[in-house]
Sequence to fold (376 residues):
Amino acid sequence: MYKVVLVDDEKLVRQGMKAIVDWNRHGFEVAGEAVNGREALLRHEELKPDLMLVDVRMPGMDGLKVIEEIRKTDSRCHFIILSGHADFSYAKSAIAWGVHAYLLKPLDTEEIDRELARIGALLQRESEMPRKTEQAGAWRKDEFLSPDDKTGITRASSGSAAPDVNELADKLFYALDIGNRDALRRLIEEGLQSIAGHDGAEQAVKTAAAQWLSLALTKLSKTGDVAYTAVHESLPVIADIYEQPDFRTLTQMLEKKLLQPLDRLGTADGKPTIKRILDFIERHYAENLKLETLGELFNYNSGYLGKLFKLHTGDTFNTYLDKVRIKNAKALLESGLKVHQVAARVGYANADYFHLKFKKYLGESPSRYKGNPLRK
Fold:
């Protein structure tokens, strides 16, 4: 029997879960209960459960924090999150920590039966796999690929500087947004290699990779309704990270699963590259865009791209970006927002610098445009 721990601050909920769910049918038994996050950590340490059902909202330490703490030492335990609210942000965060299901209260017996059957099958497969070396959850050295491997991923070595996960997420998001398959594959490989190069332990790689993808997909989900739907359908890819037995299959799984949102979004539509770049700038002008980043995404040498940009727009990249930002800033000012608010929204961290740029391109201070839609 696989051991289960129920974590919920409401006694009636815990009693109900024990009564309405046919645990034995799926090979599970309720081995313990916890009424709060701290007690859940103790039960995990004491019982070493195979599955924990955890309420999101509890006094003190909430359910997501409990899972985050457990994931620091245990990559094998399975989790089902219970919540009274259908909140995308909760679901996204939960999946980032390797949660296998996000169920709403009151529990639907058919739904939880399906999840127990699925998790039971996963546990069975895991028990049949040869156990790997488990010193601090580290993957064996030979599970990282050598430089002559056909995938081109170099052997990871611990000790390099920690990668900037936000920067990695931005690049991956951009590749998804423009529909560049080649850039997507390359960024997945480079991102995983950068993560593993800092800390090659299995749990460290999986946790960082889950956070990286979660950030990128969250950014993508905010670009429109179609993207939101595509991302929501793709979220299981984050939980799948924790199921991969080695570095190679992790890389291959991510490449396969992240190409699926591109097919749904249909962003690679045959437009000329320069038009796609200009469209990209219109969508992301408020971010920290650099010509080098665009070169990476669109497979151009940054120097050549700069010349191409000048040829087609008549402006350097930085000048064009400033003009797009100022154009949008003018509209925001006319809507009544304060100058410092507008500066931040269009990509200028410093309000004084924004003031200088605004006056350079429009000849007047931004305060002259505030709340006046009739100005040209």
User: Anything to note?
Assistant: The chain is about 55% helix and 5% strand. The two ends are 73 Å apart (CA to CA). The beta strands are 2-7, 28-34, 51-55, 78-83, 101-104. Confidence is low (pLDDT under 50) at residues 130-138, 140-158.
